[in-house]
Write a structure and sequence with these properties.
Layout: H1 10-20, H2 25-32, H3 37-44, H4 48-63, H5 65-79, H6 85-98, H7 120-140, E1 143-147, E2 150-154, H8 169-172
Antiparallel strand pairs: 1-2
Helix pairs in contact: 1-2, 1-4, 2-3, 5-6
């Protein structure tokens, strides 16, 4: 009796598990016990059955526990009085948009304007809104982060318009 050709080895399954849980492919291959993780991960990430299994497992996680965690996180952001008002507003707006609700009575407000059709007031409003969102995001990112296996220390730098010096990205990341 023959072996089912699409069956994966225990190492391949462990590799898929590692990638699905957020490890880089090379780290997942190392986790799975491969001797040459960089080479093996490169080969495995080109195998359709492995890619399909990773996609299937990610979809299962996204539609299961992670979806519930995301919903709980958004609920917490909206209900927690310690959450900055702009964050609470954006979380509430996101929930309404996902549910198919849009704010505004005017049909022109229902669709985002193309930049080419904006007047000076609209452009200034968009820039101000974007800068506020970026400042809020930047202040919330302060601390130590691991990105692609590298430890990065991010610090928020207050910057006013009247400062002559330009901010350098290297000033914000060390």
């Amino acid at each position: 009796m023959g072996v089912y050709q699409n069956a994966m080895t225990p190492k391949q399954l462990k590799f898929v598990d590692g990638v699905t849980r957020g490890l880089s492919p090379t780290k997942a291959a190392d986790y799975a016990g491969y001797r040459e993780p960089a080479r093996r991960s490169w080969v495995m990430m080109r195998e359709s059955r492995i890619i399909l299994e990773i996609q299937k497992r990610r979809a299962s996680r996204f539609n299961g526990d992670l979806a519930q965690t995301a919903i709980s996180t958004i609920e917490h952001l909206i209900e927690d009085p310690q959450t900055p008002p702009a964050t609470r507003f954006n979380a509430a707006r996101y929930v309404l948009e996902v549910a198919g609700h849009r704010a505004g009575d005017n049909s022109d407000d229902m669709q985002e304007k193309q930049i080419e059709t904006m007047n000076m007031f609209d452009l200034a409003k968009a820039i101000t809104s974007g800068m506020s969102a970026l400042n809020e995001l930047a202040s919330g990112l302060e601390g130590t982060h691991i990105i692609d296996g590298e430890v990065i220390e991010a610090k928020y730098i207050e910057h006013s318009d009247d400062e002559d010096e330009d901010l350098d990205l290297n000033d914000m990341l060390s």
